[in-house]
Amino acid sequence: MRFGFALREALRALRRNAVPSFAATATVLVTVLVLGVFIPVVQATTGAADEVRSRVIADVYLKVNPTRPDIERVQRLLEREAPSVGRVEFISKEAAYRAERERHPEYYDLLGKNPLPDTFRVTPERPEDIGQIRDFLTPVAPGGGRTTIDPAIDEVRDREEDTPKILSATRVIKLTMGGLAVLLGVASVLLVANTIRLSLYARRREVEVMKLV
Q1: Contacts of 207 (CB under 8 A, 6+ apart)
Q2: CA–CA distance, 173 with 144 (Å, rounded to integer)
Q3: Residue 125 contacts by C-beta under 8 Å, 6 or more apart in sequence?
Q4: H/E/C letters for each residue in 102-140?
Q5: How many CA atoms lie less than 13 Å away from 191 in the CB half-sphere?
Q6: pLDDT tens digits, one per residue of 162-187
Q7: Nearest Cα to 123, choosing from 54, 52, 77?
Q8: How many whole angstroms separate alpha carbon 111 and alpha carbon 105?
Q9: Structurally, what CATH architecture does the domain formed by 57-158 represent?
Q10: pTM, two decimal places
């Protein structure tokens, strides 16, 4: 009984105040639609930024024809002593050659022998920590310049020139999308609140009569 009465009163109020009711409904609907579209965009953008950041790695190239003890020693060094290391992957020169040959057969078919070195691919716990790993593996030599921490290591490459750009760009993207999400959320709340106020203002006479009753 009460539900039927409430429903009839609601329908009568909608008919009597069609324009404010339609405006309030449309505002809420548009707000929900905008949030529904924007949230997946933020998630997709943030996911893409995280994927780009995951490409920040360091490649540790070993010298030509390293022995098994050399490889095991460098692996222990990376896994146990190097700071902020998240993952260590050993890529033999044979595996690297096969992968590159599949990608660029026109170039590698001309080579008489495998020019690629055995490599450890090091992924930091956080992209920002790549510099600590590089400094650990290639400390500053007493006479200036850099040397390698182990004689079996030939070179360490971490795409030093690209890493700051990647970190800076992804940081700006994530901060921008987060800021837009907050602004849109606040604007949505204010818009709905203002719409409710306008609806109440349009029914002010009914409210005053109800107060008197």
Answers
A1: 200
A2: 38
A3: 84, 85, 86
A4: HHCHHHHCCCCCCCCCCEEEEEECCHHHHHHHHHHHCCE
A5: 18
A6: 666 666 777 777 777 777 777 777 77
A7: 54
A8: 10
A9: 2-Layer Sandwich (3.30)
A10: 0.58
